[in-house]
Structure formats: C-alpha cells, structure tokens
Amino acid sequence: MIISKTPFRVSLAGGGSDFAEYYRHKPGTVISLALNRHMYVTANRRFDRSIRVSYTQTEIVDEVDQLQHELIREALKMTGMTSGVEVTTIADLPAGIGLGSSSTLTVGVLHALYALKGEWHSPGDLADRACQIEIDILKRPIGKQDQYIAAFGGVQEIRFNSDGSVFVHPIICPCDCRKELADRLMLFYTGIQRDAGAVLAEARRQMVESADTRTLIDGLVALADEVRASLTGMQVNRVGPLLDAGWRLKKQMASGVSSGHLDELYATALAAGADGGKISGAGGGGCLLLFVQAGAQPAVRAAMLDAGLREVPCALDPEGSRIVHYSD
C-alpha cells in the first residue's frame, strides 16, 4: 500500500497570470504557499482486476472508462494503472473552498499511483502531468499555479513562460521571516462552497476579449513582484496592503469574483484591524485570507466569528507532495 500526502495552498499575488491566455503573450508570476492541511491518497493493488475508487462516493467498476470521478480516472489512465487497483482519498478540508483541492488531489493521486508502480517522478513532472489532465484532457478553465505549489510545497515564486514552461523559485528569506508571515495570516471559511468553473471561465474569456482585463493582470503580476521583494527584504508587514491592492484589482476580473456579502465580510475584517486580504482561489466564496498584526488578531477573530465564519487554523508546509507510507 502507498499513501501520498499533498498540501492545499493559498496564493498571495499574481492569480490569473497562470492562464495560457495571459502568459502566451507575456510571462506570468504567482506567489503561492503550501498549507499544513493535506489530501491523503492511498493506492493499493486488488486481488481481482476490478477498480475500486472511494471518495465521498464509492465506485467499483470493471473498466477504467466506467469511472465517474474524472480526475482519478484520467490519472489511472495516464499512469497505466487501469485494472486491479484501489484508490481512496481523505482530505483535511472539503472541496470547493478555494484552496486548490482539485489540483491537490490530482497531484496526490498521480504520486501514489506512480509509487505503486515503483516509479519516481520529480515535483515538476507531477505538476506538469496534473496540468495535462486538468487543462488539456478535461478542458477545465483553470491555470497552472495550483498543481505546482501542491507538488513543490513551501513558499514559491512560480513563473509561467510563453513557451508553456514553468519555473519554480523558492522565496529565499530567513526562518524568522517565514514564521512572521505565517503568524500574520488568518484564514476563515465563509460557509460558501462553490464551483469555481463559471468564475474562471468568465475571467478567461475576458482575458481574450478585453485589453482592460489583461492590464488588470499586469497589475497583479507587478504586485507579485512586490510581495516577493517584501519577503526577501524581510519587510513582511508590507504584505497586508499588497494583498488589499491585489484583491481590489481581482474583483474587476469577473462579475462572480465577489458579492455584496463577501464585500461586507471583507469590510468588517478591515474595520476590526486587518491590514488586507482576499477571497482565496477564484473567488465567489470559499475562504477569506487575511493579513493581521498580532495585536489585532483577537478583534478580527471575534468579528469574523460573529459574522458566522469558521476559522481554519493553519501554518506553512515546507514540503510538497510526498510518499508517507510504502509497504508491499
């Protein structure tokens, strides 16, 4: 049996520039970090030739193409594990809350299946293959950032080049700087689970049709550069206002990114003392990420709890997807 452990993520800046509609014309940059909340995938060989997949549902089929779970089905096909195998998934957090769950799952399933075959694949290869499944095969309207941070972990500057290549550069800063960043970030679940597809499809369409949208993403990329410079320059307190500036730009990318209710929650957080923040992922719901100085955190926590939000305690995970159990 194999068990893989793959982190969820939040991005700090640059979201949208990981779409081909943008980076084919100019390089994109995202600053993203892995959280110590994980997707666990087990992979095991079955006695017979059937395939069993267990997630929120359980499927037992004779042929891989009969599987309804698209991501696991395509991962099985890509790895050549198309019979006599069992895959189960267990997650610390639910899907649809803007923390990259689909890509985390895809990377984790690929990692576990390759390990079951006795094959080693680099983080870059796992991320690239996950992108192939989600973007090229299943045609999902998403970018590339989630797959790479899930595979690499840590705090990363991820660059998306016009030829389709991706460069992953760790943010080099002292341990005290990383700890300060982690201590300042607070994450709250809004209670709104959503399918990001509609929001992302509109944003992607706007990138093609609107020069104004592409200009907005230029601004998000510039903010990503500023976030990197703030962290490497040990000026962590600059991150909060940069998050705020990025969220104000991102809200203009598509109509479903925010809502009156989400705007009200964010305004409440700022009034309670947060320096800045954003709705994670595509927007529209999910989690509210906030940057809050230590002294203001009790007031912000109380305000968010009073508004009905649930805090998601988390820290940074320095590792990406890894195999945590291997047995014959």
Helix and strand arrangement:
Blueprint: E1 2-13, H1 20-23, E2 28-45, E3 51-54, E4 58-61, H2 70-79, E5 85-91, H3 101-117, H4 123-137, H5 145-152, E6 155-160, E7 166-170, H6 175-184, E8 185-189, H7 197-209, H8 211-232, H9 239-250, H10 260-272, E9 276-279, E10 287-291, H11 297-306, E11 310-311, E12 322-326
Parallel strand pairs: 3-5
Antiparallel strand pairs: 1-2, 1-12, 2-5, 2-6, 3-4, 6-7, 8-10, 8-11, 9-10
What does this structure look like?
The chain is an alpha+beta fold and 328 residues long. It is 41% helix and 23% strand. It has eleven helices and twelve strands. Strand 9 (276-279) and strand 10 (287-291) form a beta hairpin. It is globular and about 60 Å long.
Poorly predicted sequence stretches spanning 5 or more consecutive residues: none
Q: What order do the helices and strands follow?
A: EHEEEHEHHHEEHEHHHHEEHEE
| Total count of strands | 12
Shape: globular
By secondary-structure content and strand pairing, the structural class works out as alpha+beta
Tell me the quaternary state.
single chain
Strand content: 15-25%
Q: Considering DSSP H and I runs of 4 or more, what fraction of the residues is helical?
A: 40-55%
Distance N to C terminus: 6 Å
Provide a count of the helices: 11
Q: How large is the radius of gyration?
A: 19 Å
The average pLDDT score comes to 92
Major sheet: size, sense and barrel closure? Answer: 8 strands, mixed
